[in-house]
Amino acid sequence: MKFETLAIHAGQAPDAATGASIVPVYQTVTFTHPAIGEDRGFVYSRSGNPTRSALETCIAALEGARFGLAYASGMAAIAGTMQLLRSGDHVVVADDLYGGSHRLFSKILPNFGLRFSYVDATRPETIAKALLPATRMVWIESPTNPMLRLIDIAACAQIARGHGAWLVVDNTFATPYLQNPIALGAHVVVHSTTKYLGGHSDVIGGAVVIDDEALRDALLFARNATGGVPGPWDAWLTLRGAKTLAVRMRQHEANARRVAETLRGRPELAAVHYPGFPDHPGHEVACKQMRGFGGMVTIELRGGEAAARKFCEATRVFALGESLGGVESLVGYPFLMSHAAYSPEEKRAKGITEAVVRLSVGLEDADDLCDDLLQALTLCR
Length: 381
Ligand SMILES: Cc1ncc(COP(=O)(O)O)c(C=O)c1O
Description:
With 381 residues, the chain is an alpha/beta fold. 37% of the residues lie in helices and 15% in strands.
């Protein structure tokens, strides 16, 4: 079955007990046992819940993989994935990384004996150079947050596999509609479903997708042991959002392209980063591994911090806020918002300067979005 059909039907057969055509919200902690030692497939909602199972089956199907696990947030999914590791293990990380992942990798996990090396994975050979005997995992995002750099997933998978390490891809920005890392050789895909998968900025969630049964069992064991599961209402909202992922992504993409083209060449801007531009440094990689270029556009204001601040506070349709991937357009200031966890030097080294503004282009009318950005720009001269 094709993507649009899977999004609406995978894991979502009519309810066996009642025939309800929409998966019910199984708002229950426990499931009554017919007899001691017997159950009907569910025991206790931390371990398993039918609403959550429906979401997990659906997300796995969208990624073209066998297993999905839902988590309470994207960060819970990332922390859950790291529980595959043991003290002393080493991880090679693409240094262009969501600030929250960087915070977990630099401030929490070293306390448990994990070691991390950061590389510029836009050149995959840097991964090969950073591998140690103890390297068990390679971690990348593509496109990256917020600079929209592209990393060649198949090349990274080849390097990781050659070393017997797992390749993990945070696929939040691309979504399974545009990119399926497991088909490109990755072992694990993580999502903040808070973003495009949920799609309506009304529910925090995360997911991990895997094809390998032993990995699934290890992740499931760790999640049950540590408890970072979403409640049934949150799972239900995410599942409802996922049904329309394809149509939303098509419109996000069309609107983002209009916005990028409208902003390109404006005198107030030093750069417009959008992987759909043929001269974007990652365009070729994007064409190779993605089915589109997504809904994000990142700009750099010529007037530096003062202009960027003025711009972020002057938009009227684009709301100033954390997050991305919702139906409503958002403007973000990565230096002090999504990437606040990095030191100023680390941010500047990655090009995340005080002049950078991130746009999550929503589903409003494209003319309204472009008019809004242009009126805000005129205040930044
Ligand atoms: C690429 C990426 N991964 C993970 C996360 C974390 O997700 P959550 O906020 O759902 O915990 C985010 C959040 O912004 C993100 O942008």
